[in-house]
Amino acid sequence: MIKALGSTAADKPLAVMDIQRRSPLADDVQMDILFCGICHSDLHQLKNDFGGTTYPVVPGHEIVGKVTAVGGDVTRFKIGDIVAVGCIVDSCRECSPCRGDLEQYCEKGTTYSYNTPDRHLGGMTLGGFSQTYVCREQYVLRMPAGLDPAAAAPLLCAGITVYSPLKHWQAGAGKVVGILGIGGLGHVAIRIAKAMGAHVVVFTTSPAKVEDAKRLGAHDAVLSTDPEQMKAYVSKLDMVLDTVSAKHDVNDYLKLLKIDGSVVLVGLPAEPLEISPFNVVKGRRSFSGSNIGGIAETQEMLEFCAEHGIVADVELIQPQMINEAFDRLEKGDVKYRFVVDMGPLK
């Protein structure tokens, strides 16, 4: 048994509990967890906003750890390596998406770091707010040298969540990319899109974040509540990466797209979003979505971030501060990502 931080109900705080990890199998990597980021989707899962949480739940899917044991068939990792585990810890490896390195779309069901059926122990998987983690080698990531492991932890979800669509929609030189929202996802997206060579325009409802967007590397920042500022970008953007996890009007941003442009949703609002047909018919525009990335692409993202010196802006907290951190996250009181130092968990 090991210690973890979990919750037993939607209205209960996180508390220390004992959980079980499997003994390493032949293709397993076991690690002591050093750091684990807090994602906005963790908040949704704790509160059962999506209706699928099984309690007790141990969140955490932005995991950085140090290898303490490896199975006999493991070839890519050794004891002492600094490694990472993101959202995906297993998949069928047989369907077309899995064969195409798109394990996040596994037709038989992706196994996530927590709150999905555990193929080995039964019950549900339990996440990274814990002392250790055990994962199949194929789903373990190598943390590149030079990246601060605490500041890099959010890349395991926030980083790949924005990198994958920016790459898929070909953000780069000559493209004008809008980033909607400056939070845990948005602030990383600004840095990645700029490193890809795109002209980056940020849209925010917060006057205070207009200047911060430029500090993060944006070429321009627009106060989306100002109609004149918004009008200046009508039909000017190749894509808008929508990172907002609350209900909002996406029609305002569909109007900003060039012909064949797309608003790509990566935030997870708990309520449906409405789209006016005229805003997609005009200009052959689209409203799309993207869900994290596969293992190979996540490793690629980590290498890209290491090459360009990209990490998240983080506030490092101790385990006993985790409920306060979730309360602040719900209020938007973080710039821009909490990371838990899991070492002191006893």
Structure overview:
This protein has two domains: 2-157 and 312-341, Medium-chain alcohol dehydrogenases, catalytic domain (Quinone Oxidoreductase, Chain A, domain 1, Alpha-Beta Complex); 158-289, Rossmann fold (3-Layer(aba) Sandwich), CATH 3.40.50.720. Helix content is 24%, strand content 25%. The protein is built from eleven helices and 17 strands. It has helices at 40-46, 96-99, 149-152, 158-168, 186-195, 207-215, 227-231, 251-254, 277-281, 295-308, 322-330, and strands at 2-6, 15-19, 28-37, 63-70, 82-85, 88-90, 111-112, 132-136, 141-142, 176-180, 199-204, 220-223, 237-242, 257-265, 286-289, 314-317, 337-341. Helix 5 (186-195) links the parallel strand 10 and strand 11 (199-204). The longest helix has 14 residues, at 295-308.
Which secondary structure elements does this structure contain, and how are they paired or packed?
Elements: E1 2-6, E2 15-19, E3 28-37, H1 40-46, E4 63-70, E5 82-85, E6 88-90, H2 96-99, E7 111-112, E8 132-136, E9 141-142, H3 149-152, H4 158-168, E10 176-180, H5 186-195, E11 199-204, H6 207-215, E12 220-223, H7 227-231, E13 237-242, H8 251-254, E14 257-265, H9 277-281, E15 286-289, H10 295-308, E16 314-317, H11 322-330, E17 337-341
Parallel strand pairs: 10-11, 10-13, 11-12, 13-14, 14-15, 16-17
Antiparallel strand pairs: 1-2, 3-4, 3-8, 3-17, 4-5, 5-9, 6-7
